[in-house]
Amino acid sequence: MSLDKWWPSPAKINLFLHILGRYDNGYHQLQTLFQLLDYGDSLAFETNDTGQLTLSPSINGVDDEDNLIIKAARLLQKKSSPLKGAHIRVKKVLPMGGGIGGGSSNAATTLVALNYLWQCGLSTAELRKLGLTLGADVPIFVQGCSGFAGGVGENIHPASLAEKWFLVANPNVHVSTAQIFSEPSLPRNTPAISWHDYNFENTHNDCQTIVCNQHPEVAKLLQWLVHYAPSRMTGTGACVFSVFDNELAAREILKALPDKWAGFVARGVNTSPLQEKLKHVNEASDMN
Questions:
Q1: Closest CA relative to residue 87, chosen from 119, 61, 108, 113
Q2: Which long-range CB contacts under 8 A does 246-250 form with residues at least 24 apart?
Q3: What does the alpha-carbon distance between residue 54 and residue 52 come to, in Å, rounded to a whole number?
Q4: The one catalytic residue among 41, 71, 84, 137
Q5: 5 has catalytic annotation
Q6: CB-CB contact of 238 with 198 (8 Å)
Q7: Is 12 designated active site?
Q8: Catalytic residue, candidates 12, 71, 84, 277
Q9: How confident is the model over 193-227, as pLDDT tens digits?
Q10: 3-class DSSP state of 34
Q11: pLDDT grade, residue 265 (50/70/90)?
Q12: Does the predicted model carry a pTM greater than 0.85?
């Protein structure tokens, strides 16, 4: 399969995560800053006219129909006429349950790629709306830009951020987002901030203390990283990140990372690699 058939499915980190309150339906009102990274999974799509959807490889312990990739394709399939199908291949490098958006990003890439390949003609806003039914983080990946987000994460305001380098480290524990958000002791009254007033030092992650208490390995990893650079947990964990001004400094610390923890270095980007891919295929299509 040629490289051209692969579509990027990038990671994200939450530079901060404030919980302002709770809606009547139980969802939490959030403020966060999504930073997209130039590193992630890859998906390839071989379309067909049979309507059949298949995935390889399957994830151990997860039925294909429960995978967000197939769920996203099924949602979009309802918008395709005549009915289209696809065989979807995935190269996974992002950990599950790590707070860096692997599953949500996979769903968004599926929506964006198949919308193009099936010629469904849905707008970005329409794809975002579909994505939100799959998860609160899907719209940011569909939108394809780093940005501030409010509500449950769907109200996105594009942000132009200095493109820093990040060491993202995985303590190899699985954190349940649902469990963290159901914790009685979770802060739910953090005052709202103005996006214009944001800086890293004056923000935090409201989930971090609870996760560290429940998962000591997350706390140990944070304690190790903070000696080298400003560090914080992303989302509801378990991954944590450190912020660097240049790639070399980040890679030096990655080399020193104890073997019991996994990690990668990535550049923060304002425009998603997924949007760059979509632009490329559209331009190529226009030339033909």
A1: 113
A2: 246/165, 247/165, 249/165, 250/165, 250/166, 250/167
A3: 7
A4: 137
A5: no
A6: no
A7: yes
A8: 12
A9: 998 889 999 999 999 999 999 999 999 999 999 99
A10: strand
A11: very high
A12: yes
